């Protein structure tokens, strides 16, 4: 135990002055004394404790608000028109309203992960006992929970230690959510500080979830050579009864695998998954396969391949039950967060539930016991599969041609499509028997099916695309390295120096959802570009899947071509959404293991270290969800910039630096206390890239840090300039802001750059020992 | 010409303050002529849209040359301008130019003072939507025009949803009345 409430009960105490019976003494929190590192300044920080750090960040990276609409409709005073400088009936202005909405999104995201973690921990304690040890990497990992250590100041050792961490997270999210009520917070910057707090707490919640499941389920433990698994539309052996699992919280899916194993049914029932449940199930068992990211839900269900669908929580289509009924596949809901209106049959005997499903008395059931889900799902699917005979609702070609002929070209489908895909043109071609344009659209389709809803003729346009692309879909079989979990301490030791000095040019974290502007292949292109350039490429969630779904001429995926270690040129899949803190944890461990900075409850100093020295950048190319928003905000507070794809502009707020304002980029030189120009490095904390080309240039640029050595800065500049010239056709116009002395100039571009520097009136400047924290200044000579 | 002021993407409904419709191309001409400091922001789709022989980027270049408007190329479209022997005044991200335009203290690309008219074309519809919204709410003394062929309601002025032919025709009129050919 690390930090706990102490309760002392004394039945009878006799002293010289009195006899006391039934005495109870309760102490608040007692910190573990076996950890020789002293408790840092901010254990279990409250909502306001890191506010000064937040304001330092927000001074450099000011919010740029992009309102979705002009009004607020959150209370009955409204709707209130907040256009321009107007204020609502409650007094709130547009800037505060936008930051309030961002905070709401981050609270939704954080609460989702924390609730997920709570469910996992409670379930695992119930099943395996509260004293189950935590182990994410054996002797290879000393700091088992770097984010929790950093934020809370404790070292969790068993499952029960995680409960108090979750108590803290839940309390924080409740407080943050309360701040969004009418008549509470009124300052946009304070809302923004709370956004950062929500993100930090979210990182803790996610870490707890993955820590628990890695430890107890025996997922790969910081394994650079975690197994390769199958992924793709065509990986399932659909001659077998097939269970499709969708969601993020894996116990019910594990219940299925366990039941199959216990009953000797391995190889007789196929289990395939979509989204993070699939990630985590393949970390648990090689018997499971992955279909793909969240966008694959409808195409897979409508193709009739699933004989039974099990949903848990998060990012699941709300119409899963409706779609499943169309293909006559029963549904089992298994999470309190997503009951789908189904009757709770948790306490019913399995045979009774199975009978009801087989006789189609009910389209689905809610079962909140993962083991019972396993039994009911497997027994039902074996009986229902022969009856279904892979019944599908994908139309025949003739039907599509006929629809093409009837299409009025009203454009409603295109206007409903998030990517403005030319569906009317494709329907025109379909009328002539050419389905190729529909198939091409499927490649960039995010799978939302808003086109279906929009069509006044009720044409199932998404199904038309699936039919058109069917042959290609069936060929989709790829290899993906399963989530390895944490980064080993030895890996950190080996790359810490080169990373902080800039010789490994950076860490690129490709994370997040699948709301891509042009399909998932762009994520793979970005990953390979930077792996080739010897950056460390880390990935998770849907992005990790998309990276797998591209092959080279030899038929190899990136996971087969690049190593899975935290090393230059590595491509590492850490796992599902809740594995993201391993990426943050790697940055934290660079500060603590490599640089020997104190970790325990020392958030501000570690974040300051990362912001100024660790060239890491997050890229969420298809960020869609509130969870993605809170994950990003956790990285911002830690000093890691995040780039989102064009749809990410709809998060309503960017955090942008202004490289044209020199005064914004001064840092303290910790050696002397002088304020020194550190350059716009990183230039932004949160921004949108319009195209993958722009994202690539931004990634290379955002990896620069004030602390880079001259050798490191020259390497980083080489990548930035090379990408800029290749993709933009010209030299960047801001090189002079990043060259501190002539040794920073890449040798191969020396003449060209020196000429530019001269034109810009550039002057040599000092490389600081950078910090934003005055308390870290060491006086000269000390 | 379709004249209904409906946002192109179905759910991107703005208001109460919505863009005025450009019912005649002459409106754009008048706005540009009246502006003391106009700027043209061109996104990457300007080189992709429409047919091979008609691209928005070509109109952007002609407009810039005709009316002397500096061009900001966003994303990687600078390379397309350079291929056409045209040097944009700046290449920066859409968010960066949006952020600067909403800052009343920004002195512009040339340091001569803030812009009073920003024309947009070629950004993804939804990105342009939110950037125009930012400028509607937070800029001072800046008018915006969406030159895309879709109604973008957060601009000060926007074309309605137009066919390619109507849009081309409008642009030719604008260019001719601005003094070009």
Entry keywords:
heterodimer, A: 782 residues, alpha/beta, Helicase, Ruva Protein, domain 3, 5 domains, 23 strands, 43% helix, B: 181 residues, Rossmann fold, seven-stranded parallel sheet
Explain this structure.
The complex is a heterodimer of chains A (782) and B (181). With 782 residues, chain A is α/β, with parallel strands linked by helices. Chain A has five domains: 31 residues, no CATH class; 184 residues, Helicase, Ruva Protein, domain 3 (Orthogonal Bundle), CATH 1.10.8; 156 residues, Rossmann fold (3-Layer(aba) Sandwich); 63 residues, no CATH class; 294 residues, Rossmann fold, CATH 3.40.50. An eight-stranded mixed beta sheet of chain A has the order 3-19-22-18-17-14-15-16, with helices on both faces. Chain A has a six-stranded parallel beta sheet with strand order 9-8-7-10-11-12, sandwiched between helices. Chain A starts with a strand and ends in an 11-residue tail after the last strand. The mean pLDDT of chain B is 93. In chain B, strands 1-7-6-5-2-3-4 form a seven-stranded parallel beta sheet, with helices on both faces. By secondary structure, chain B is of the alpha/beta class. In chain B, helix 1 packs across helix 6, helix 2 packs parallel to helix 6 and helix 4 runs parallel beside helix 5.
Rg measurement of chain B, Å = 15 Å
N/C terminus separation of chain B: 23 Å
The tally of strands of chain B reads: 7
Largest beta sheet: strand ordering of chain B? 1-7-6-5-2-3-4
Helix and strand composition category of chain B: alpha/beta
Mean pLDDT of chain A: 95
| Number of structurally distinct domains of chain B | 1
């Amino acid at each position: 135990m690390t930090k706990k409430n102490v309760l002392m009960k004394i039945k009878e105490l006799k002293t010289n002055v009195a006899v006391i019976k039934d005495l109870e003494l309760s102490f608040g929190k007692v910190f573990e004394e076996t950890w020789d590192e002293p408790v840092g300044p901010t254990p279990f920080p409250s909502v306001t404790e890191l506010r000064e750090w937040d304001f330092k960040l927000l001074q450099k990276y000011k919010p740029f608000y992009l309102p979705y609409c002009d009004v607020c409709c959150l209370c009955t005073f409204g709707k209130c028109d907040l256009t321009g400088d107007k204020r609502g009936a409650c007094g709130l202005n547009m800037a505060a309203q936008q930051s309030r909405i961002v905070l709401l999104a981050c609270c939704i995201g954080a609460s989702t992960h924390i609730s997920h973690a709570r469910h996992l921990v409670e379930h695992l304690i119930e099943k395996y006992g509260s004293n189950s040890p935590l182990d994410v990497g054996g002797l290879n990992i000393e700091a088992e929970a770097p984010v929790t250590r950093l934020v809370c100041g404790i070292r969790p050792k068993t499952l029960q230690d995680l409960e108090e961490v979750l108590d803290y997270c839940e309390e924080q999210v409740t407080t943050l959510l309360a701040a969004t009520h009418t008549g509470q917070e009124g300052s946009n910057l304070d809302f923004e500080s709370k956004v950062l707090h929500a993100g930090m707490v979210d990182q803790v919640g996610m870490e707890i979830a993955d820590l628990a499941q890695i430890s107890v389920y025996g997922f790969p433990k910081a394994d650079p050579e975690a197994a390769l698994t199958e992924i793709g539309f065509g990986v399932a052996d659909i001659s077998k009864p097939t269970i499709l699992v969708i969601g993020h919280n894996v116990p019910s899916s594990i219940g299925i695998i366990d039941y199959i194993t216990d009953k000797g049914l391995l190889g007789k029932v196929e289990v395939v998954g979509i989204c993070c449940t699939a990630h985590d199930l393949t970390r648990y068992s090689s018997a499971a396969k992955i279909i793909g990211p969240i966008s694959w839900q409808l195409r897979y269900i409508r193709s009739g391949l699933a004989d039974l669908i099990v949903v848990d929580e998060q990012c699941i289509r709300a119409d899963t039950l409706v779609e499943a009924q169309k293909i006559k596949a029963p549904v089992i809901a298994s999470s309190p967060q997503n009951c789908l209106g189904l009757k709770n049959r948790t306490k019913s005997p399995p045979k009774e539930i199975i009978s009801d499903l087989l006789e189609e008395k009910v389209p689905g059931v809610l079962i909140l016991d993962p083991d019972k889900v396993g039994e009911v799902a497997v027994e039902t699917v074996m009986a229902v599969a022969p009856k279904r005979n892979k019944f599908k609702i994908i139309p025949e070609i003739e039907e599509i041609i006929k629809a093409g002929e009837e299409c009025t070209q009203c454009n409603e489908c295109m206007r409903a499509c998030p990517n403005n895909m030319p569906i009317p043109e494709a329907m025109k071609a379909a009328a002539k028997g050419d389905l190729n344009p529909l198939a091409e659209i499927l490649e960039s389709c995010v799978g939302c099916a808003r086109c279906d809803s929009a069509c006044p003729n009720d044409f199932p346009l998404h199904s038309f695309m699936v039919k058109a692309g069917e042959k290609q879909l069936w060929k989709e079989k790829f290899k993906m390295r399963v989530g390895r979990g944490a980064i080993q301490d030895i890996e950190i030791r080996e790359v810490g120096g080169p990373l902080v000095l800039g010789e490994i040019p950076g860490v690129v974290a490709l994370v997040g959802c699948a709301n891509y502007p042009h399909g998932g292949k762009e994520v793979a292109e970005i990953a390979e570009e930077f792996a080739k350039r010897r950056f460390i490429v880390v990935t998770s969630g849907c992005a990790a899947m998309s990276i797998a779904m591209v092959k080279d001429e030899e038929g190899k995926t990136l996971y087969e071509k690049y190593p899975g270690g935290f090393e230059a040129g590595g491509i590492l899949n850490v796992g599902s959404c809740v594995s993201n803190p391993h990426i943050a944890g790697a940055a934290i461990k660079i500060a603590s293991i490599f640089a020997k900075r104190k970790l325990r409850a020392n958030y501000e100093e570690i974040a300051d270290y990362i912001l100024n020295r660790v060239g890491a950048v997050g890229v969420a190319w298809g960020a869609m969800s509130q969870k993605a928003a809170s994950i990003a905000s956790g990285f911002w507070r830690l000093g890691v910039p995040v780039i989102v794809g064009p749809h990410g502009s709809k998060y309503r707020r960017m955090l942008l630096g202004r490289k044209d304002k020199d005064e914004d980029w001064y840092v303290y030189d910790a050696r002397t206390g002088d304020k020194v120009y550190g350059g716009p490095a990183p230039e932004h904390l949160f921004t949108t890239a319009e195209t993958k080309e722009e994202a690539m240039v931004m990634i290379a640029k955002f990896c620069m840090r004030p602390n880079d050595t001259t050798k490191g800065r020259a390497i980083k500049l080489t990548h930035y300039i090379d990408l800029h010239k290749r993709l933009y056709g010209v030299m960047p116009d801001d090189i002079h802001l990043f060259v501190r002395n002539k040794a920073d100039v890449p040798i191969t571009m020396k003449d060209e750059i020196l000429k530019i520097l001269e034109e810009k009136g550039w002057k040599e400047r000092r490389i600081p020992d950078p910090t934003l924290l005055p308390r870290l200044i060491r006086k000269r000579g000390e | 010409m379709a004249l209904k002021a409906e946002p192109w993407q179905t759910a991107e409904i703005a208001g109460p303050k919505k863009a005025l419709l450009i019912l005649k191309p002459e409106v754009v001409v008048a706005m540009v002529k009246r502006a003391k400091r106009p700027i043209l922001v061109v996104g990457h789709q300007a080189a992709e849209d429409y047919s091979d022989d008609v691209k928005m980027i070509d109109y952007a270049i002609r407009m810039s040359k005709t009316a002397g408007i500096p061009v900001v190329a966003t994303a990687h479209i600078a390379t397309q301008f350079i291929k056409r022997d045209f040097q944009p005044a700046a290449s920066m991200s859409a968010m960066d130019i949006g952020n600067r335009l909403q800052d009343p203290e920004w002195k512009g690309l040339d340091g001569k003072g803030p812009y009073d008219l920003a024309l947009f074309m070629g950004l993804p519809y939804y990105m342009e939507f939110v950037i125009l919204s930012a400028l509607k709410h937070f800029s001072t003394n800046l008018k915006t025009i969406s030159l895309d062929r879709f109604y973008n309601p957060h601009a000060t002025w926007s074309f309605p949803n137009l066919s390619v032919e109507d849009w081309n025709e409008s642009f030719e009129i604008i260019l001719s009345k601005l003094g070009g050919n």
